[in-house]
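Convert to structure. Protein one:
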Amino acid sequence: MSGSGQGTGQAARPKRADARRNEKALLDAAAAVFVTSGVEAPIREIAAEAGVGTATIYRHFPTRADLIVAVYRHQVEALAEAGPALLVTEAGPHAALARWIALFVDFVTTKQGLARVLQSDEPCFDPLHAYFLEQLVPVCTRLLDAAAEAGEIRTDTGAHELMLAVGGLCAVAGKQPRYDAHRLAGILVDGLRAGATA
């Protein structure tokens, strides 16, 4: 699974629209399998989920580490893109913030299985946490600022501390019966209304 020369050449050329769609389908399939079977799931299971052969997986992602990094980045990017879209489609900035935090909870709870892998000696995993912060803190800041400017929430809460708080609420998810991280994160976001200026 080295994929040396051919993979480098492919990476240097812009991908066609159909190639990007195919890669997105693979990443979505891998993400779904990682949630149900863990990141060590057989490649054939991911291929079956995506409806392709295993050779197609290896052509796009020569190693499992390549696939894990791509899935992580793909889902961070989707979460980053959701923030501005929610400001347009939701009833107001607080509703957009609440919906985005719900998506953030989904992301965090389904990524808990990656913790052991991300702490391994693979150097390709090292930049992922920084990438997570670079992509998502500005989005959360924009949502908080919009809600604060509308007078819907208090103004003294930062994006990083809110994301840390929600991450802490998610840490127990799946380990305790009747523990609902979504419900608790919703209570936290509703609590931001206390002290609002409107």
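Protein two, convert as well:
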Amino acid sequence: MDDDHWDDLREQCRGIESGAELVTPLSERPFRIDAADDDRIVVRFGDSDETRPLWRDQFGVFDDQLEGQAMAVDELQPGVEPYAAVLTLSSAYTVDDDTISKAPADATGGESPFLVPAVEARTPPERIHDDALLLAHLIDRLEVDEPSAVDGLATDSLTDYYVLASDVQRGADGIRQEARDELLERLGPDQELHGHFGTVRRTTRERRRPKADETVLAALDERGIPREWVLGVDPSKLDVVLSVTDLSEDEVYDTTEDVYVQKTGVDEDEKYARLQGLVTRLEELEDADGESLRAEIEDIEARLEEALTAT
């Protein structure tokens, strides 16, 4: 690989948006660029925190293989995948029809399909953190201090309030389930675990569902229990009858309406842009304000620790 192409590739690596990541073409392992040095590009894999140098000489070998021919993505070896993903950042290469090749002079290269923007590369915990931060800021800005306060909100603000609350609830439920599964591995019978913010214990609930129809009916027959006592109308079978006969729906169904608000879209790009602005503002806090905030948090933690110790 000549100096111009190597310098261009390193420049593209250094210009990647903060928080963005690449994925290997076949195994789809996420990784980020740690450094772009004179003789190597260092990457870090997100699924293992492993760092790996990608050597300039090896990029040269890959470049030679592309001379005059395309390479199918599905033929890449595991060790070559990171090289291929990084190489497609350069304007000298292009990916088309699942093949990698040198870009023609009139083609637009460098639009790598293996580059994931920062807004999409966030992990579920990072997303819930960001959504919660945006919701907290919105609550503070709109002064939503009690349920009745939403009456005075403008429609667009009320919509944002609902969407963010919905996203926080969905994200929190996802990470709650992950934490629950791990806690079940650590909790013994009748054991409680204590944290700074609360206590958990293992709880068992019984959930019943009928056995196969044949098993249930046979058990009833053995004891002389009339089958009619447990037989009912099957809605799925009733729908079939409605579709093939002249029986009307209102003859067999009582219909009620349940009106609710459905979230039909989320503008992640707008949320991320607002978040970046908010993060910048927080980072620009004067030392006194920052110290005051940290002191307040430390005081809350100390009081929680004291309360837990006292119990």
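The mean pLDDT is 85. Strands lie at 21-23, 30-36, 40-45, 51-55, 71-72, 93-96, 99-102, 115-116, 192-194, 199-201.
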